[in-house]
Amino acid sequence: MMTRREAVTLLAAAAAGSAAPAASPRPMLKRRIPSSGEELPAIGLGTWQTFDTTQSAPLEEVLRTFVQLGGRVVDSSPMYGRSETVLGDLAAKLGLQAKLFVATKVWTSGKQAGIAQMNDSMRKLRVEKLDLMQVHNLVDAHAHLATLAAWKKEGRIRYLGITHYTQGAYDAVARYLAKQPLDFLQINYSVIEREAEQRILPLAKERGVAVIVNRPFGEGSAFRAVRNKPLPAFARELDCTSWAQLFLKFVISHPAVTCAIPATSKVEHLRDNMAAGRGRLPNEQERKRIAEAIG
Prior knowledge:
Strand order of the largest sheet: 3-4-5-6-7-8-9-10
Number of strands: 10
Structural class: alpha/beta
Shape: globular
Low-confidence stretches: 6-24
Distance between the termini: 19 Å
Largest sheet: 8 strands, parallel
Mean pLDDT: 93
Number of helices: 11
Strand content: 5-15%
């Protein structure tokens, strides 16, 4: 059984052995933030589990390569252990702070506790002004959104938003989308978890809220669903050479989606993921073919 790493290595070797001259890289697909018009690359980088480590040396190459390949959006949270500290230290060491769009979250109850935690996050990330602060999983969202509205007005943050990762929270998410002036929503969505298509993604688009997608591989369930299945022939028509690219193109081709944030600590997986932000995106009929290929 071929692992994802083995498949990526094989594809890279085949490309390296080709007699054809190397083509210029295609530009990374970008999407506009509805509330400002600012453009963001469609593939970002999550830090859940991967950046929560005391062995950060391998992540230097991941973060450096991410930026070299056109990435900007990096998402973290105080819930993710050491991830904010590792991200902040590496970005400073590599001189990448000005090139990143840094997003994190507040994950506590109480206004003052939230202020203290957000200040601590900004210290760990080594930023004086944060691109995006989100209320993690709607924890005490009413209190924190009031603080974030004030911070945005003061210029301490550029954008504010909310997050969640389960279908069971969609009713609450919809209520905040309908009533609050949000810049961003972060939500779970993948070819294997499509419930957000029913109401959440259309509502975000209607309300002019940018969407960051977490769990774009359904926490690995998408890969498990295609275990031992060959990549379908039509993937080549979409400029895809791996299942990961096909899964990510399914996500970012939804008209409401701004950016997907797959997490990885491996450079070869990062390169594979970033390739999904280039070339053709599937149309609606091709999206259906991708879903059918999962079975």
